[in-house]
Write a structure and sequence with these properties.
This protein is an alpha+beta fold. It has 14 helices and 35 strands. The relative contact order is 0.13.
C-alpha cells in the first residue's frame, strides 16, 4: 500500500518486500504462557532484501545462530510503527528462485524479558545463587532421616544397649586422664561418637530448600523486571514457601554444614528456568503469570481476570452489524465435572513421602444433588511430591523414640526420606520462628499443627494440602473453588471464533496492541476470554479465537 514503509537495520527495503497488503498482527499465548506478538502471515523478500537475509543467516549458517535483524514497519493506515525482529528460527530461503520468507516477531522490552526468563537456568552451578540466598537468609537447611527396616531397628537396639555404654565408659576414662595429665588423649572421641550415632540413626545429612518468593525476585531482577505476587507468594504462609530438590545426591553431612563446600550440594539445585518454575507452580495455585510494563506477575487467576478490559457486548455489536460471523456458542464438556480430583504426584524413589499423599490430596464432590450433564472426572494434578516428617501420624513410634534418645541433635521434626534422594521436587512451607541448632548450624522444618487426640503427633506443611473441609488455610478453598461448575465462576462455555469490525479500527487495534490478551467480551452477561487475537489490516477487522466463557 502507498505510504507503507519497511526498513531493515535502518535501511529502506519497501520495494523488495511482498505481502504487506496482507499484514496481520497476531497476539497469542504460547505453550509456556508467554504472550507472543508478531505477524501471522509470511512476508516474501526479493532483490536486495533477499541478499541481506542470505548474507546474514545462510552464508555462514553455523555462526549465525545469535544474529538477528531489526525490521520496522510504518503502517500508513493507522500511522503507527511496528518494531519487529527476525532471527534464525523465523527465516528460510528458496535458493533457486532467489527469495526469502520471513515471519516477524515483535520487539518489545516485555518480550525480551520473557526470553530472559525462558532461556536461563539461574540456579545451576555457575550462578552463585546459593551465596545470594545464604546472605539474604532465604536458604533453609532441612535435616533428613531414613527409617529403614527390621535390621535397622535391630541395629539401633544393639547400639543403645551395648555400643553407647562402651563409648560412655571410654569418655569417663578420657576425662579422668585429661584432668590428671592436662591433655586430651581422646580428642576426636566425641566427634566419632556423634558420627556413629547419626549413621546408625539414619540422620546424618541435610538438604537445602530455597524461598520461592526470593527466587522469583532474584531472577526478575536479573531480567530487569520487578516481581509481584500479592495474592499468593507475598501472602502468609506462602511467603515462607520453599522449593526442595534432592534429585541427584543424598545431601551434605551434618558435621560439614559449615564446611567449605557451601550451603548446599549444587548438584541438587533446581534445574529449571523461572518460566518453567512458574508453569509448575500454576498447577498448584490455579495461577496465571505474565509480564506487563516491566513487572512479572504471578497471581490468582481470578485476581488477574478482574483487571482485564471489557471490550464490547457481543449481543449489542450483533445488532449494529459489527459481528461478521455466526458466533457458535457451545458448552465446554471438559469442564462439566461431577467431581474434582486434586492430586500431587507419587515419587518413584521417596516412598516415605508417598505415605503422606492421602493427607495432601482430596476429591471434592460437585454433583450433589446429581445433574445428568455433570458426568466428568476432572483431574487437577501437579508435578510435586508430598513430604513426610518425623512426628507425622503414620511414623513408627519406635523410630520417633530412637530419634529422641539416640540422636545428638533434635531430629523430632526431620524430613523423612527413603534414601535421601527424590525423583520429584517438594514444596515446603518453612517454620522460620522455631529453628533448631546442630553442629553450630541452624536447621528448619515445615510449619506444623498439633494433631487432635494424638500425643506427640503433628500435621506438617498443612497449607499445602488440598482439604476442602480443613479449618486452616489450604489450597482448595484458597485457590481452586472456582472450578466447581455450580459456583458461577467456571469455564463452562466456549466460542471458537468471533470476527469483529470495530467502528474505529485504528483506535481499537491500538488498544489491543497495548493490553494484549488481558481482555474479554460479554455475551448474555457471561465473560469470554480469548486465547488468540488477529488484527487484519486489509479488511480492518479483528478475529478473536479460542474464547472461554465463565458462568
Amino acid at each position: 500500500m502507498i505510504g507503507d514503509k519497511i526498513t531493515i537495520n535502518g535501511v529502506d527495503y519497501t520495494s523488495d518486500i511482498y505481502g504487506l497488503d496482507e499484514f496481520v498482527y497476531n497476539i497469542k499465548r504460547t505453550d509456556d504462557a508467554a504472550i507472543e506478538t508478531g505477524t501471522s502471515n509470511i512476508l516474501k523478500l526479493k532483490g536486495k532484501a533477499y541478499k541481506l537475509i542470505l548474507d546474514t543467516f545462510f552464508t555462514d549458517p553455523c555462526n549465525s545462530l545469535d544474529k538477528k535483524l531489526d525490521i520496522n514497519f510504518n503502517d500508513s493506515i493507522c500511522c503507527v510503527e511496528y518494531k519487529f525482529t527476525a532471527s534464525v528460527n523465523q527465516v528460510k530461503i528458496c535458493y533457486e528462485d532467489c527469495y526469502a520468507e520471513v515471519v516477524l516477531i515483535e520487539k518489545t522490552e516485555d518480550l525480551e524479558a520473557y526470553q530472559c526468563l525462558k532461556n536461563h537456568i539461574n540456579f545451576w552451578k555457575p550462578t552463585n545463587y546459593d551465596k545470594h540466598a545464604a546472605a539474604k537468609g532465604t536458604a533453609y537447611r532441612i535435616i533428613t532421616c531414613n527409617n529403614g527396616g527390621f535390621l535397622h531397628k535391630a541395629l539401633l537396639i544393639l547400639f543403645k544397649i551395648f555400643v553407647r555404654p562402651i563409648f560412655d565408659i571410654i569418655k569417663i576414662i578420657c576425662d579422668a586422664i585429661d584432668f590428671l595429665v592436662r591433655g586430651d588423649p581422646c580428642e576426636d572421641l566425641e566427634d566419632n561418637l556423634n558420627d556413629a550415632e547419626n549413621e546408625v540413626l539414619g540422620c546424618k545429612r541435610y538438604h537445602t530448600a530455597f524461598n520461592l518468593l526470593d527466587m522469583f525476585q532474584y531472577v526478575s531482577d536479573k531480567c530487569k523486571l520487578k516481581f509481584e505476587s500479592k495474592t499468593i507468594l507475598e501472602q502468609f504462609p506462602y511467603n515462607c514457601l520453599a522449593w526442595f530438590s534432592a534429585s541427584s545426591t543424598t545431601g551434605r553431612l551434618l558435621t560439614d554444614c559449615n564446611g567449605a563446600g557451601g550451603l548446599f550440594d549444587v548438584l541438587n539445585a533446581p534445574k529449571y528456568t523461572m518460566l518453567q518454575i512458574a508453569h509448575k507452580l500454576k498447577d498448584v495455585f490455579n495461577a496465571e503469570y505474565y509480564i506487563k510494563d516491566g513487572v512479572f506477575y504471578f497471581e490468582k487467576k481470578e485476581f488477574v481476570r478482574n483487571t482485564y478490559n471489557n471490550l464490547f457486548d457481543v449481543g449489542k455489536e450483533y445488532e449494529s452489524g459489527r459481528i461478521l460471523t455466526c458466533t457458535d456458542i457451545e458448552f465446554n464438556d471438559e469442564k462439566l465435572c461431577a467431581y474434582g480430583r486434586f492430586e500431587y504426584s507419587e515419587d518413584s524413589i521417596d516412598t516415605e513421602g508417598n505415605n503422606a499423599i492421602n493427607k495432601y490430596n482430596d476429591v471434592v464432590e460437585w454433583n450433589n444433588p446429581p445433574r445428568p450433564n455433570q458426568t466428568k472426572e476432572c483431574n487437577f494434578s501437579n508435578d510435586f511430591a508430598p513430604a513426610s516428617f518425623g512426628r507425622d501420624a503414620w511414623q513408627d513410634t519406635f523410630m520417633k523414640t530412637c530419634r529422641r534418645l539416640i540422636g545428638n541433635c533434635n531430629f523430632d521434626d526431620a524430613l523423612i526420606m527413603e534414601r535421601g534422594v527424590a525423583e520429584k521436587d517438594k514444596l515446603i512451607i518453612i517454620d522460620k520462628e522455631n529453628p533448631t541448632y546442630c553442629f553450630e548450624c541452624k536447621f528448619h522444618t515445615a510449619i506444623k499443627l498439633k494433631a487432635k487426640g494424638l500425643s506427640d503427633t503433628y500435621i506438617y506443611n498443612y497449607p499445602m494440602f488440598f482439604d476442602q473441609f480443613a479449618a486452616h488455610k489450604e489450597l482448595y478453598n484458597q485457590f481452586w473453588k472456582d472450578k466447581d461448575p455450580r459456583n458461577g465462576n467456571s469455564e463452562l462455555l466456549k466460542i471458537n471464533s468471533i470476527k469483529y469490525k470495530p467502528k474505529d479500527f485504528c483506535k481499537f487495534a491500538g488498544l489491543l496492541i497495548e493490553i494484549k490478551l488481558n481482555c474479554y467480551v460479554v455475551f448474555n452477561g457471561n465473560k469470554f476470554y480469548p486465547e488468540e487475537i488477529s488484527i487484519e489490516r486489509k479488511t480492518q477487522t479483528v478475529e478473536f479465537r479460542g474464547l472461554k466463557g465463565v458462568c
